[in-house]
């Protein structure tokens, strides 16, 4: 090496000065943006609830509960308009995810949700059940979600549940479909007899 290159290589270098004012401005700007996006999402949620305000109060379980056919412990993942898995229903607390305890009886489906509103689906309102891969905001492996279709206030609703023991889902599908078909056969017979 030539002496001039050695001198340049050996010359002390100062550490770059951090522009703290610039960094703080970026962090504050990012926080303001995140808060604004959250606020927009919250307003959208409230607006959706207002649009769905015509949904009647949810039924509650009868006092004289029948003998349980099946019970399930798991999670409630939300409800949507039937057949439209992205059209989330948020009115009447149906948009709140929570733990859930399900009990199926001859009278219907009782959904107990700690920290959220419980509801009851009368057997006459059940329209069937199936296994799906997802519902608004939740996607699981194929068949990982129990979706129960029911009618309330003239509207068909899909509600998604996941058992702590996913192997229980097929038995629930069979039992709900059997109960709903029995109810519809009984209703049809009663309607025909009234004519």
Brief summary of the model shown:
It is built from 3 helices and 10 strands. The chain is of the alpha+beta class and 195 residues long. It is elongated and about 85 Å long.
Describe this structure as you would to a colleague.
The structure is a single chain. The chain is an alpha+beta fold and 195 residues long. It is 34% helix and 30% strand. The chain has helices at 3-10, 20-51, 169-194; strands spanning 70-81, 88-89, 98-105, 108-112, 119-122, 126-132, 134-135, 138-139, 145-152, 155-163. Strands 1, 2, 3, 4, 5, 6, 9 and 10 form an eight-stranded antiparallel β-sheet that branches. A two-stranded antiparallel ribbon has the order 7-8. The chain is elongated.
Can you tag this structure with a few keywords?
195 residues, eight-stranded antiparallel β-sheet
Report, as a whole number of angstroms, the end-to-end distance: 110 Å
Oligomer: single chain
Outline, from the CA principal axes? Answer: elongated
Structural class: alpha+beta
Radius of gyration computed on alpha carbons? 28 Å
Order of helices and strands: HHEEEEEEEEEEH
Question: What percent of residues adopt helix (DSSP H or I)?
Answer: 25-40%
Strand residue content: 25-35%
What's the total count of β strands? 10
Please count the helical segments.
Answer: 3
Mean pLDDT across residues? 85
The major pleated sheet works out as: 8 strands, antiparallel
Residue stretches low in confidence (pLDDT < 50, at least 5 long) are none
């Amino acid at each position: 090496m030539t002496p001039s290159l050695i001198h340049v290589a050996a010359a002390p270098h100062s550490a770059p000065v951090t522009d703290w004012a610039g960094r703080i401005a970026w962090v504050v700007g990012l926080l303001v943006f995140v808060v604004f996006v959250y606020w927009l999402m919250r307003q959208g949620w409230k607006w959706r609830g207002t649009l769905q305000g015509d949904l009647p109060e949810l039924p509650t379980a009868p006092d004289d509960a029948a003998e349980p056919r099946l019970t399930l412990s798991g999670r409630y993942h939300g409800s949507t308009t039937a057949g439209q898995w992205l059209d989330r229903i948020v009115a009447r607390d149906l948009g709140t995810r929570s733990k859930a305890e399900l009990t199926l009886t001859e009278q219907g489906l009782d959904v107990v949700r700690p920290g959220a509103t419980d509801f009851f689906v009368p057997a006459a309102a059940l329209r069937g059940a199936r296994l799906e891969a997802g519902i608004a905001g939740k996607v699981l492996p194929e068949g990982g979600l129990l979706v129960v279709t029911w009618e309330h206030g003239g509207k068909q609703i899909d509600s998604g549940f996941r058992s702590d023991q996913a192997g229980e889902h097929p038995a629930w599908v069979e039992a709900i479909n059997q109960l709903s078909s029995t109810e519809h056969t009984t209703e049809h017979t009663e309607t025909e007899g009234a004519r």
